[in-house]
Backbone:
């Protein structure tokens, strides 16, 4: 008997511990820790792993936090240790630039997620074209996908494909999408994109759907899935890679990774690395419930501690105002405005 | 009262909004609009508003410069054609206000360094970018109190207010603005971030300014300096408003601003476009006043 309807389907896993996971560590992962994690991923046969500041190239800033090392230092330290895995980077136009992509390529990055908000694909043509010119494996990464409908995602995906993107991602940055939403979006993209264009899915586990949504994406035609060992990522984390790998093994989906090695890695390396348990808790659940960018979690908690407004209230308000990735400054701004309205802030402040 | 006659190059949203602002000026008069498409909406609107128009680009304007006494031209086309436009008009003694990212001439933020440019009789000044106009006055207000090691700004723009040119060249926006935070704002290093938000109804332009000072910030002096600067900008952009801050944390000064436009031709949420046209108009007015007062005579620039 077949293990599942998807038996024999092939999928490429892309680990996010060393990029999305940076958010869960307030951008404080050292070069040595990166090398340790990347080496373990490489040994576990994970084919792709992303290495940058959580906000990608150009991410080192007051807005997004300062990491202890530069992106070039991280990438070069990791890349030279890889035996089979490809090192990728994140580039968000408006933050990262083509100069920084050149630098990342020079030190060993060979794949890039060129990321825009799910309605703003036309801010990416020069970066996608430049990545292709460098010969990089190039993905168009449509963030906060729940803020566009399936037809809109198709239109934006087609734009990125026309600029040269080889894979188009549905990126559920808020962990808000329900399984049917994922199926619908990926199915429509599969119908509309060129057959040689790949489709990817990047989930967050804020509603506990990271694994289920990833499987739904594979069933609808996605061939690349972003996940992270032990879920180390923003919000309640990404789809936990070792869990996804185990489910795929049971279903007969072929990923090529060593599931037991990933289970060991989660337990022995990633969980001890965590500053807080990355899980569905009151605030990260709020992200998924209200459709808020997962990265806002820790800054909202900091603003809550500073201004006395509960983090959940701040996150709900940011969701109402339709704030998107990159607007981290609006967390403190919104918290201050709410604190003033509640009489918690000196009017002079 | 005599006014200085102006030409507008580029018949898009910016050019059209400029007509409104220049018409209100006591020292400027819009006379010509230059486009490249005879059927364009922008040129039709300009004709309806009583301007002379040409669809032949700057070459269509050149034969009329002397007869119509054009002395100032605003260029709202693109960085790629600005250099040529500027060369041709400067040769006829027309001063250029550059709203493209070309930045051939010195960078101008009116309340910070306009006087200096007028004193030097510059024949081409560049208006940097919307984010530059919205944030550099505040950085300058901080750096005039004490040294700023690093300035960082985040401009949030409504999706509807960002045109195809900016979208296709976001790196240019990043480099031009980052550079100006240093050159005009007075920070030692700088970084500019842009976010395009598609929310409906469209969000008003927001700008956050972070300054890291070398020494402990003098809170009272910085707050007073920032508030005084905001009053200066409000003279030409009434919707320039402090939302939160200045707030201090160690050596970090954070200031949260909003820019609502006047709603002339562009909607009020597009404060990013409005602050460019308002700053450009303000700049032209300063030069025009000097010309009218006999303190400044524009001279043809010989082609190099």
Residues:
């Amino acid at each position: 008997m077949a293990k599942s309807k998807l038996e024999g389907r092939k999928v490429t896993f892309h680990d996010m511990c060393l990029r999305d996971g940076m958010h869960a560590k307030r951008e404080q992962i050292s070069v040595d820790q990166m090398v340790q994690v990347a080496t373990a991923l490489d040994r576990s046969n994970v084919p792709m792993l992303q290495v940058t500041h959580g906000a990608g190239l150009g991410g080192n800033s007051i807005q997004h936090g300062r990491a202890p090392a530069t992106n070039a230092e991280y990438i070069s330290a990791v890349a030279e240790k890889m035996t089979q895995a490809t090192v990728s980077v994140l580039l968000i136009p408006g933050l990262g630039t083509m100069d920084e992509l050149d630098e990342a390529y020079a030190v060993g990055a060979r794949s890039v997620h060129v990321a825009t908000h799910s309605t703003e694909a036309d801010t990416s043509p020069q970066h996608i074209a430049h990545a292709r010119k460098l010969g990089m494996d190039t993905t168009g990464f449509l963030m906060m996908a729940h803020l566009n409908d399936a037809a809109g995602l198709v239109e934006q995906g087609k734009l990125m494909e026309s600029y040269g993107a080889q894979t188009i991602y549905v990126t559920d940055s808020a962990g808000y999408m329900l399984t049917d939403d994922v199926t619908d979006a990926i199915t429509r993209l599969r119908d509309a994109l060129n057959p040689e264009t790949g489709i990817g899915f990047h989930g967050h586990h804020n509603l506990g759907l990271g694994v289920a949504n990833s499987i739904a994406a594979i069933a609808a035609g996605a061939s690349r899935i972003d996940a992270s060992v032990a879920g180390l990522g923003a919000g309640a984390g990404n789809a936990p890679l070792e869990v996804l790998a185990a489910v795929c093994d049971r279903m007969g989906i072929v990923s090529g990774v060593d599931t037991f090695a990933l289970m060991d890695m989660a337990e022995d390396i990633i969980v001890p690395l965590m500053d807080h348990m990355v899980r569905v808790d009151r605030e990260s659940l709020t992200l998924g419930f209200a459709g808020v960018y997962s990265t806002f979690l820790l800054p909202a908690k900091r603003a809550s501690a500073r201004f006395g407004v509960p983090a959940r209230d701040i996150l709900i308000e940011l969701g109402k105002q339709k704030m998107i990735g990159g607007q981290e400054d609006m967390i403190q701004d919104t918290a201050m405005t709410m604190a003033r309205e509640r009489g918690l802030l000196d009017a002079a402040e | 009262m005599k006014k200085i006659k102006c030409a507008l190059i580029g018949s898009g949203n910016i050019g059209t909004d400029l007509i409104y602002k220049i018409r209100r000026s006591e020292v400027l008069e819009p006379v010509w609009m230059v486009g490249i498409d005879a059927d364009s909406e922008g040129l039709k609107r300009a004709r309806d508003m009583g301007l002379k128009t040409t669809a032949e680009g700057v070459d269509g304007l050149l034969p009329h410069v002397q007869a119509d006494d054009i002395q100032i031209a605003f260029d709202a086309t693109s960085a790629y054609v600005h250099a040529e436009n500027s060369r041709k008009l400067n040769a006829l003694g027309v001063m250029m206000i550059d709203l493209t990212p070309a930045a051939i001439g010195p960078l101008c933020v009116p309340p910070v360094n306009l006087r200096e440019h007028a004193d030097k009789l510059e024949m081409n000044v560049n208006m940097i970018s919307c984010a530059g106009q919205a944030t550099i006055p505040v950085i300058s207000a901080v750096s005039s109190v004490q040294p700023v090691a690093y300035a960082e700004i985040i401009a949030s723009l409504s999706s509807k207010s960002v045109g195809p040119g900016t979208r296709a060249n976001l790196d240019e926006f990043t480099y031009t603005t980052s550079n100006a935070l240093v050159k005009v704002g007075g920070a030692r290093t700088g970084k500019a971030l842009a976010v395009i938000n598609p929310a409906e109804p469209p969000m008003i332009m927001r700008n956050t300014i972070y300054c890291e000072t070398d020494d402990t910030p003098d809170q009272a002096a910085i707050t007073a300096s920032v508030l005084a600067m905001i009053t200066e900008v409000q003279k030409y952009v009434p919707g320039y408003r402090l939302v939160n801050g200045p707030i201090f944390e160690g050596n970090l000064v954070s200031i949260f601003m909003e820019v609502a436009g006047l709603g002339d031709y562009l909607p009020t949420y597009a404060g990013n476009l409005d602050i460019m046209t308002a700053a450009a108009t303000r700049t032209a007015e300063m030069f025009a006043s000097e010309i009218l007062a006999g303190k400044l005579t524009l001279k043809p620039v010989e082609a190099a």
User: Anything to note?
Assistant: The CA atoms of residues 174 and 291 of chain A lie 5 Å apart. Chain A has a mean pLDDT of 97. Chain A touches chain B at residues 61-63, 93-95, 97-99, 117, 119-120, 122-123, 125-127, 147, 321-327, 329-330, 332-333, 336-337, 349 (CB under 8 Å).
